Amino acid sequence: MNTLTPALLVLAASLAAVPCLAQERVFTHQRDLLTDAIRNNQAQGVMQGEVAEHFARELRSTGTLRVQAKVLQALAREDCRRLEVRYTQEDVPTPRGVTQARLVTRLDYCLDGGPPTTQE
Predict the structure, then answer these.
(1) 38 near 79, Cβ under 8 Å?
(2) Which of 42, 76, 104, 114 has the most crowded CB, counting CB atoms within 10 A?
(3) pTM score, two decimals?
(4) Res 120 pLDDT > 80
C-alpha cells in the first residue's frame, strides 16, 4: 500500500495540471482574438496559422506566438472598441542568445470586421 500512495499522488498532480493546459485558447485568425476581446473586455492565448507563420518566418523562430488583447475604450459605434494587442514570439535567436520578441499595437475594431465609422 505504501508504494501505491506515491503513485496516486503523482497521478493526481499530473491530472491537476491538465486543466491549465486545456484552458489556453488557440486563435487561428486575428479577427477571432479581436472579437473575443470586444465581447469579454480581454482575450489571450496562442496564435496559430498565417499570423504565427509570418512571425516565425520574419523572426526565424520555432517558438510559440502568444497573444493578448484588451479593450482600451469604447467607441461611438456600440460594437466597436479601441484595442491594445500584444504579440510575444518566444525562442527568437539573436546574436546575444535566444529571447522573446514583442510587438504592441493599438487599433479600432468592430465586431462585424468593418471600420468604426459613424453612420449618420
Answers:
(1) yes
(2) 42
(3) 0.76
(4) no
pLDDT tens sequence across 6-37: 444 444 444 444 444 457 899 999 999 999 99
Separation CA 17–CA 32 (nearest Å): 26
65-74 sheet: strands from edge to edge:
25-27, 42-47, 65-74, 80-94, 97-110
41 Cα distance to chain centroid: 14
* Cα-to-chain-centroid distance, residue 94: 23
- Sign of the Cα torsion 53, 99, 88, 24 reads positive
Q: Where are the beta strands (DSSP E) in 14-96?
A: 25-27, 42-47, 65-74, 80-94
CA 14/CA 6 separation, integer angstroms: 12
What residue segments make up the domains of the chain, in order of their start? 25-110
Amino acid residing at 76: A
Q: Is-contact 54 103, C-beta < 8 A? A: no
